[in-house]
Design goal:
This protein is mainly alpha-helical. The chain contains 6 helices and no strands. It is globular, with a radius of gyration of 16 Å.
Length: 181
């Protein structure tokens, strides 16, 4: 069982790295020309083309690094990501991360919840969905591209919100996020 959880956490690391890099890009306002909303009315002003580009391109280096490191981990890691080119895996993980966030943003805009704000009603469920949506998107990418065991897939979905929350609080503490979640 410990190998399953370690594998789930291992598969999340490239996305933690790219998500952290994305927060640095936003905080420093790098690539500001790309900071235009995908569709402001549908998703709000915070879902931008810069975010799409940074998450897709930013996930590739972490995936490449973990592609190289996976054989060193031996039998502890239960998913062989070396069977998928790191450019393809990283690109699709970044895309899966961003696309999975859009339905939640769409729903929140329909409920007149301002971008970047918490819901006043059903706050717990929206916060959970904010933390879980990208984990679900990335787990699906791993399921499509690798021979991920169902237990690892489920642990990514179960642990993803907690890992995302811990990463957000850490980024907030480092001054890279305006709010902890």
């Amino acid at each position: 069982m410990s190998e399953v959880i370690i594998t789930a956490l291992w598969l999340m690391v490239p996305l933690i790295l790219s998500g952290s890099f994305h927060m640095l890009v936003v905080r420093k306002n790098w690539f500001s020309a790309w900071a235009t909303p995908i569709h402001e009315q549908a998703f709000g002003r915070n879902k931008t083309w810069r975010g799409v580009a940074v998450m897709i391109l930013g996930t590739i280096p972490g995936t490449a690094l973990f592609n190289l490191a996976t054989p060193l981990a031996g039998n502890i890691i239960l998913v062989d990501i070396t069977q998928v080119h790191p450019f393809l895996l990283g690109s699709l993980l970044g895309l899966g991360y961003v696309i999975a966030e859009l339905p939640n943003s769409y729903i929140k805009r329909r409920l007149n919840i301002p971008p970047g704000q918490q819901a006043s009603r059903h706050a717990f469920w929206f916060t959970l969905l904010d933390q879980a949506d990208s984990a679900i998107g990335c787990a699906l990418v791993y399921a499509i591209l690798t021979d991920i065991p169902i237990a690892v897939f489920m642990w990514i979905i179960l642990l993803g919100p907690l890992v995302h929350l811990i990463a957000n609080v850490t980024l907030y503490s480092a001054g890279l996020r305006k709010r902890p979640f």
